[in-house]
């Protein structure tokens, strides 16, 4: 057995050290020569899902005057979701024809519902741009009927009586579907909220 400090032991130790250094030098080269597909297959991308929910503020006329009444709502959403792998721009027009006004605040008029979802995984380029531009509908019949007609303000046009203010940022959170970013559109007089939840879903490119 070689003795520490003996020339033979030192020579063998130096040989092992030099071999180890050569292996370290070859490691980056091995990664560089790896097949491109195996590297790309590990890249993480994203696809988005957008859900909608409609609620009323505690002081909303429909809650104070029409508890239990039936009605309907529809609205228009402008959506722009563009990436290298997937492009979408257009207007979504969901409608909910059979709504029952809840008996108190804290209960939604429209339960959380999927509005739109991408089926293509793409590179991360920020969140889709989504804006509620119009909200309409009615509740009850006869003399107590309440009409809803809320729109965004436009340059050169008088501010609408029931102005719809979009893009109100809410706190981000998470639920059974995952992490989400939330935005609200609120009507001034009818006091209704259209909440949009945007879910970024991890996926492989």
Describe the protein:
With 205 residues, this protein is of the alpha+beta class. Helix content is 18%, strand content 46%. The protein contains three helices and eleven strands. Strands 1, 5, 8, 9, 10 and 11 form a six-stranded antiparallel beta sheet that branches. Strands 2, 3, 4, 6 and 7 form a five-stranded antiparallel beta sheet that branches. The longest helix is centred in the N-terminal third of the chain and has 26 residues, at 7-32. It is elongated and about 60 Å long. It starts with 6 loop residues before the first helix and ends with a strand. Residues 1-7 and 23-39 have low confidence and may be disordered.
Q: What is the CA-based Rg, rounded?
A: 29 Å
Strand percentage lies at over 45%
| Number of helices, where a helix is a run of at least 4 consecutive DSSP H or I residues | 3
Secondary-structure-based class equals alpha+beta
Low-confidence stretches: 1-7, 23-39
Q: Gap between N and C termini, in Å? A: 56 Å
Order of helices and strands: HHEHEEEEEEEEEE
Shape: elongated
Q: Into which percent range does the helicity of residues fall?
A: 10-25%
The overall strand count is: 11
Mean pLDDT: 84
The largest sheet is: 6 strands, antiparallel
């Amino acid at each position: 057995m070689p003795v520490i400090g003996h020339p033979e032991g030192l020579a063998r130790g130096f040989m092992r050290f030099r071999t180890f250094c050569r292996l370290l030098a070859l490691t980056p080269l091995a990664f560089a020569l790896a097949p491109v597909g195996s590297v790309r297959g590990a890249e993480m991308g994203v696809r988005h899902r957008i859900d909608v929910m409609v609620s009323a503020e505690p002081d909303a006329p429909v809650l104070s005057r029409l508890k239990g009444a039936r009605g309907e709502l529809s609205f228009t959403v402008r959506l722009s979701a563009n990436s290298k792998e997937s492009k979408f721009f257009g207007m979504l027009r969901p409608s909910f024809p059979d709504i029952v006004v809840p008996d108190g605040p804290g209960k939604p008029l429209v339960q959380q519902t999927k509005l739109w979802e991408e089926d293509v995984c793409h590179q991360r380029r920020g969140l889709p741009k989504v804006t509620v531009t119009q909200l309409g509908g009615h509740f009850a019949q006869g003399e107590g009927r309440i009409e809803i007609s809320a729109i965004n303000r436009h340059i050169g046009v008088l501010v609408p009586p029931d102005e719809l203010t979009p893009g109100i940022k809410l706190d981000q959170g998470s639920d059974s579907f995952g992490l989400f970013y939330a935005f609200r559109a609120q009507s001034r007089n009818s006091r209704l909220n259209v909440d949009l939840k945007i879910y970024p879903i991890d996926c492989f490119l």
